[in-house]
Design brief:
Distance between the termini: 50 Å
CATH architecture of the largest domain: Alpha-Beta Complex
Order of helices and strands: EHEEHEHHEHEHEHEEEHEEHEEHEHE
Shape: globular
CATH topology of the largest domain: DHBP synthase
Helix content: 25-40%
């Protein structure tokens, strides 16, 4: 497949390019576009054939539902099979456009290929002008998972997408780096007490402040419990190297990581260390990368996937990663780290 690659300025969008990409969506093609979370691989959410093309391009398991992106409330109502509840209105007024995906009962307009056979549909409104204009110009809701090969670190830069999907999709819209850096929070509104199925850019604390009561899916905190969201049971975000997370007091963590690094180097392994701004100078290894600051965990969220991809680029054999606090946005960052490491965690 010949992939058309377009460079776009987020602040001065070339509408001719957007209209060309929208036409690809209307004819059931695939278009990669930037969002505030990660880059998305989009296609017509009303077409079963378009949905299948997304799964094929990513190598994505067919029981992993797609998130539908909308640009208006009218489009949302067309996608869902119910009127908006008071809770939904509160959340939409507070957090949309933004990194919050809401699960509703689906309407008959959405094919089962998009929802993997479920009677519910996940929907969000992205906070990115390129994404919103693409949806508006196409006149269609757009189904879009992250624009990466399934299981690999999600793409937060155009170069990540080009490396993964050039030749697999019809077009790639290259914008700026994703400012949130982790996927959207998924909140199930189809149950009496809303449940977080995936932590993301909108935190548990944010949601609890608005709704008063929110639960967290047990599968997010336990390796033994299968997450409710079908796609969350798969290995995600994984670099090529084996990865271990070290958890505990900061000094003990640093000592343990250096001890393990020396051990692996003695075995001839190329060692990478995933640290933070506050600790990166403590380490010596083949590659030391800071994912961001412990004082501002949003920087860690924005940097985590780029860091994991850099380890792949440098052909690192072993990654040793510091654990972070799981409060606020830290829950989302640690969720990605745990999945990337296959829940391989050492406590010190």
């Amino acid at each position: 497949m010949n992939t058309q690659i377009y460079e776009l300025d987020d602040k001065n969008i070339d509408m001719d390019i957007i209209k060309a990409a929208a036409e690809i969506i209307r004819r059931n093609g695939t278009v990669v576009f930037p969002t505030e979370t990660v880059y998305g691989l989009g296609a017509n959410a009303l077409s079963k054939d378009a949905a299948r093309s997304i799964y094929e391009a990513k190598g994505r398991p067919s029981d992993n539902p797609l998130i539908v992106h909308v640009s208006s409330i009218d489009m949302l109502l067309y996608v869902i099979g119910e009127s908006l509840s008071d809770k939904a209105r509160l959340l939409i007024n507070k957090f949309w456009p933004g990194p919050l995906t809401l699960i509703f009962k689906k309407s008959k307009n959405i094919p089962v290929e998009v929802t993997s056979g479920l009677d519910t549909v996940a929907v969000r409104m992205p906070d990115n002008e390129i994404a919103l204009e693409l949806i508006k110009q196409s006149g269609l809701p757009i189904a879009a998972p992250s624009a990466n090969i399934s299981g690999k670190p999600s793409p937060t830069k155009a170069e990540h997408v080009i490396n993964d999907l050039n030749g697999r999709v019809d077009a790639i819209l290259c914008g700026s780096s994703s400012r949130v850096g982790v996927e959207s929070t998924i909140l199930d509104l189809s149950v009496e007490v809303p449940v977080i199925l995936r932590p993301g850019g909108i935190t548990f604390e944010d949601l609890n402040a608005v709704l008063g009561e929110v639960k967290i899916d047990k599968g997010l905190v336990s390796k033994e419990t299968v997450p409710k969201a079908p796609g969350m049971k798969y290995t995600h975000y994984a670099p090529e190297a084996d990865m271990t997370i070290v958890k505990g007091g900061l000094n003990a963590v640093a000592d343990k990581i250096m001890s393990l690094a020396e051990q692996y180097k003695g075995q001839g392994k190329k060692v990478g260390i995933l640290a933070t701004d506050e600790t990166k100078d403590r380490y010596q290894a083949d590659l030391v990368i800071s994912m961001g600051s412990r004082e501002n965990m949003y920087t860690a969220a924005a940097g985590i996937f780029d860091a994991l991809r850099e380890f792949d680029k440098q052909e690192i054999d072993i990654i040793l990663a510091e654990a972070l606090s799981e409060e606020n946005i830290g829950m989302a960052v640690m969720n990605r780290l745990k999945k990337a490491a296959g829940f391989n965690i050492i406590e010190v």
